[in-house]
Task: structure prediction
Amino acid sequence: MTEKTTAEKIREFSERKNRIGAMGGEKMVRKQQEQGKLTARERLDLLFDQGTFQEIQLFVKHRSTLFGLAEKEINADGVITGFGRVNGRVVFVAAQDFTSAGGSLGEMHAQKIWKAMDMAIEARKPFIALNDSGGARIQEGITALQGYAGIFYRNSIASGYIPQISAIMGPTAGGAVYSPALTDWVFMVKNNSYMYITGPDVVKAVIAEEVSHEELGGAMAHAAKSGVCHFVTENDEECIGRVKTILSYLPDSCHSPQPIAPCTDSADRECPELDTVIPDKASRAYDMKKIIAAVADNHEMFEPHEYWAKNLVVAFIRIMGRPVGVIANNPRFGAGVLDVNASDKAARFIRFCDAFNIPLLTFTDLPGYMPGTQQEWSGIIRHGAKLLHAYSEATVTKISVVVRKAYGGGYIAMCAKGLGADYVMAWPSAEIAVMGAEGACNVIYRREISGADDPAAKRAELAASYEAQFNNPYFAASLGIVDEIILPRETRKRVAAVLDAFQDKSETRLPKKHNNIPL
Ligand code: HXC
Result:
């Protein structure tokens, strides 16, 4: 056999690279396109700055010989891994390609993902998974399970160290759902992505329930019902675009500086619209998002969990270009009451922000915790405790603004001074009390009310005196529980000033292995 020339070897390399790089081939690509989905390579082209993507381990092959796999070539073993730049910043990625053996995960497919994750951890850069896979490669059996376990392990180790983002852009079934669930942010594409532990066929066989893929585990099911999904997008393009947006708010790692955006807004911009945002009648609803947007640079907010636990809003904003995490009750839904889901939503967001050194800004307007058997039996005590724990353990700058009601445990849970708030402000419309006036009088003046000639009139009279004492911010301010009463229009200015003053805040906690948050 004649030896190949160097030119032939180079040509052979290019041919091999192109063949493997073509993934599942034309027919499978067409099928993918017919479903309105992009291929993994097209997704990566959208994600990375042009020409910056560096693929790794393209030539990795599966080594299974079972159930016909010995004869089956799976290009790149169904997953493209590597790194590149997103708006100039380095990001690592694993993009499963449904056109190659359904993006199914076998031993070597998993090891490629491990490698990309290990590199992201070592390099201290964000990791993004683009999921589009039929799940464990059934022919490979247990090695696929080992593969998933190694991914879950890395997701957990990397948690709080580098930001981890999952975009669900196709099927994600069985145990495969747990990698996204272990990451910080889950994006889903409407109609083309679904996540579930078991699909509709198994559901029907086991519990005789008939349900469609979309209903069971589609984007809206997880965005509005389970809370698994943080962001719903219309198509692949929008999904990638929004992944880039969230990256713009996040540092590369917990040890990296915050990404500071150029700011065209001014720190002392007044927000006169906030002087009239609170309705005159205390029982009236309004949309808390108006307050958040008014305070944010250029009125821009990026809101995870928009459709879940709407009684509480979490959002990323910027103030003078710096990322800030906002947590706020929204009286527009259920009077802004705290329940199980709102507590979980807020606690996880607070812990994410604290892990990545993003300051917290809390707006309070809530009547308290939701009473009743449904909430008690769902564990409002356990879930509510997460919120207290998350705020207390957070060492980032914590600013609270009480805009209206702050009653009882709800007042504490929304980052009261006692939970370590660095600065608490209140609007003149604030009402800070242990409970509502009528309820309070029913307890402390029970005898006086029942013994009165006109109990209703007596209750109203006593309630009025209770309200005069507590339904304002002045009593709390006299005790220093509120540091400053501010005009609503001054909120952005005041928040910007405190954030600026606290830029170098450094707080440590007791030396220990880790907290035991009530999960
Ligand atoms: C091996 C798979 C596969 C899998 C898909 N393929 N899923 N190969 N293992 N899990 C292959 C198909 O055989 C086919 O190969 C190609 O991918 C395209 O799949 P289609 O079925 O033609 O696509 P479509 O009609 O769009 O249906 C998509 C689908 C279906 C609904 C996702 O593929 C499906 O039901 N797959 C299996 C899903 C599943 O049960 N997964 C759970 C595995 S157990 P050819 O060669 O024909 O093109 C699991 C446990 C993990 O995941 C636990 C971790 C802790």
